[in-house]
Amino acid sequence: MSARGDATILLVAEELDQFPDEAYTKFARVLESEIGRRRPLHMHVTRAHNWSNSSVVRVLSRTLEAAGVARDPAVRARPPAVVVYASRSSVTLPALIRARLLGLQCHAPVAMVALQTTAEVLRGRLARRVAPDLLLLSTEAECQTARALGLRAHCVWGGVDLDRFRPPGPGEKEALRRKWGMVPDRRVVLHVGHVKEGRNLRALVPL
Questions:
Q1: Which of 105, 120, 164, 188 is the most buried (most CB within 10 A)?
Q2: d(Cα 100, Cα 114) in Å, to the nearest integer?
């Protein structure tokens, strides 16, 4: 899958978080920046709905949002040569259906970026039938699974900001402990991720 140098690429992202450091949001914004450096790009961000707390309603709302992408004035004015769909829910059957819907609406091939993959989903007959033109998956093992099922797949890595995530300089750890009022010689337990009940974070309280 490729696009001419002057052809517009449509990047579709879902419900970007208001916090720029949230993982999916950061990935989508970096993807926007990097593609935009190389090709004409339009980014369409679907909306989140306050009433989409239930998983069933959330699937429905995301599908309705995907169905409205082709009505974006910028998309209508300059139809894309390629659609890149960054799925917030990664590889699920509803996400695969949304990718197919985007391709049908925009009359363009679709590359679907999935930061997490459930190989079992791809083994379903319906999933294989609605799979996009290209799956961009996060590991080579996932790509091999997809290819064995007859799907086109390539690896894409989220990457690491090496300026931010690096070994500390001399005295830097001590300075950060002082800055944040932490005891200088005690072990620190850190959870990086969503604050959800299923993460069993209550186990950290006694520590």
A1: 105
A2: 14
Q: How many residues does the chain have?
A: 207
Q: What are the strands of the beta sheet with 153-155, ordered from one edge?
A: 41-46, 9-14, 82-86, 110-113, 134-137, 153-155
Which residues, other chains included, contact 199 with Cβ-Cβ below 8 Å and sequence gap of 6+? 191, 193
pLDDT, one tens digit per residue, over 133-147 is 999 998 888 899 999
Which of 60, 42, 63, 39 is closest to 51 using CA atoms?
A: 60
Q: Which two three-digit tokens encode residue 145?
A: 């699974």
193 φ/ψ sector (left φ>0, alpha ψ -120 to 50, else beta): left
Q: Which stretches of 9-117 are DSSP H helices?
A: 23-38, 55-67, 73-77, 93-106
Question: Looking at the predicted structure, is the pLDDT value of residue 55 above 60?
Answer: yes
- Give helix 55-67 / helix 93-106 axis angle, nearest 10°: 10
